[in-house]
Amino acid sequence: MLTKRIIPCLDVRAGKTTKGVKFQGNVDIGDPVEMASRYYADGADELVFYDITASAEGRGIMLDVVRRVAREIFIPFSVGGGLATLEDMRAVLLAGAEKVSLNSGAVANPDLIRQGAKAFGRQCVVLGMDVLRVGITPETPSGYEIVTHGGRRRTGRDALAWARQAETLGAGEICLNSIDADGTKAGYELTLTRLVSTGVGIPVIASGGAGEPEHLAAVLTDGCADAALIASMTHFGGYTVPGIKQFLAARQIPVRQLRC
Amino acid sequence: MIAIVDYRAGNLASVARALDHLGHPGTITSAPEVIADADRIVFPGVGAAGEAMRNLEELGLAPALRQAVADGKPFLGICLGYQILFEHSDEDGGVPCLGLLPGRVVRFAELASGTGPRLKVPHMGWNRATFLRPHPVWKDIPDGSDFYFVHSYYPQAAPKVTACTTDYGVTFASGAASGSLVGFQFHPEKSGPPGLRLLRNFCQWLPG
Hints:
Strand content of chain A: 25-35%
Helix content of chain A: 25-40%
Distance between the termini of chain A: 19 Å
Largest sheet of chain B: 8 strands, mixed
Oligomer: heterodimer
Number of helices of chain B: 6
């Protein structure tokens, strides 16, 4: 049986894993290569790295991080943040990432998804979606709208329609982030996750709102998600990947357990 | 020397990195003469079967691969490199493949019969491989180990070559073995400790 994936997400800025803290900006919380190795040893199913600088200089540092991570861990990982061209995608994949995560770049230029899928294969192309609950309008019949720039910029695009368009264009997977739930630690946005996950034929990773293992159980069952992204819970929230998996297994949710 | 066959089917660096890590470095090559000189062959690949078979023809690699198998060299197919070892693939409107293993490759049905939920395609993530018989290449891999899959087609392999099975809507042959030839639908290079153990076993395997 296909297991549900638990995917730690690391925000990387200037070569360091970082965390946004209200009113304080970003605080460095560790070395991404060391953190990746620890998560690998702990049985994380996949990792996501998000380049939050996304400047030319930041990109170079990020590629170096990707190369070093690729030598240390033998599970898939994806890299996102500011990827806007086929060349950006190629550089990240050649450095050793399994997948690229497109977000604002694909909103600005949807054909980027098609180009990426054609050049590297669908399995390499993840569509990252930042989604805001806006209520049902003629423009957003699903009640959810795509936003960019960390939620600051509305796009007028309906979230479900965009997910389906991306699937048609060649996205192999969707990472679905709820701006409403993000940072609340009050649980994933179950309605949104169920809507998108049952509305497309490709896997959906739920993101935003995880604060305790119960939240993962909910999104992987009621929310119909194929995988769950976590960050602060395990970076410094007192939870571990094996502990979360044990909790989920006890709920009869299939998860991968390390056996050797 | 271990030859990692490059037939323009995706990024081979992850296989190369895993072999480096295990202390059995491979040589990425598109040259038939390098394959002829190699002691063992790793045949990876992601992408589509039609283009893969065209590339093998263009590069003149198919005879070298057949010869390596005929010579009894340890040979490992991975993902697309596993699928095109079979006789035929339904991908790209139907493609004759290498025919080194009996069976054909078909697409997952998105709606399984009955009332089950819609099956997502690709089959992406960690799933269990149940090994049906002992073999040096999967020696010491604990029962119930999960491996990383990402694919939309799967082989319907003849039972006599089926090495392990995996359930995803159907029960399919996620691995096959015949003489010096083994192949897996999953990616051992991305499957953590059990995947690395399988690769190490392959690098040390002396088919009898």
